[in-house]
Amino acid sequence: QVQLLESGPGLVKPSQTLSLTCTVSGASIITTNYYYWSWIRQSPGKGLEWVGCIDYAGSTDYSPSLKSRTSISRDTSKNQFTLQLSSLTPEDTAVYYCNYGGLRGYWGQGTQVTVSS
Fold first, then answer.
1. Pairing mode, if any, of strands 60-62 and 48-54?
2. pLDDT tens for residues 44-66?
3. Which residues, in sequence order, are bridge partners of residue 60?
4. What percent of the chain has pLDDT over 90?
5. 10 Å Cβ neighbour count for 68?
């Protein structure tokens, strides 16, 4: 059973950089190569928005609308992958989820991030 757990700050200020970490158990992020390890968010009143992903080899892909501000990396020794989102605005306020396997895959519980001064 794959389990994912997000961690990071709940409140960040505009223009700052958000850093969220997903800790994975039950699977290895470097040997589990069938799906991607993803970040997905949901803003208030909106649907799910894919932010980006990293695969077992460390290759990344990002949403075109967020690409210039997004970086996803990993710490293989801790079986974690991390999202960094820079130049934050209030529009980045959302619940952020880490995911493996898409909509029908495995999800973290989600972490609320509020961008406010």
1. antiparallel
2. 999 999 999 999 999 999 999 99
3. 54
4. 89
5. 9
Other beta carbons within 10 Å of 69: 18
- Summarised one tens digit per residue, pLDDT across range 87-106 is 999 999 999 999 999 999 99
Distance (Å) of CA 6 to CA 46, 82, 117: 21, 9, 23
Q: Are 68 and 57 in contact (CB under 8 A)?
A: no
Measure Cα distances from 23 to 7, 37, 66, 75, 114 in Å: 8, 11, 23, 10, 21
What the block records as the tokens of 38 is 């993803």
Cα 106–Cα 110–Cα 115 angle in degrees, nearest 5: 145
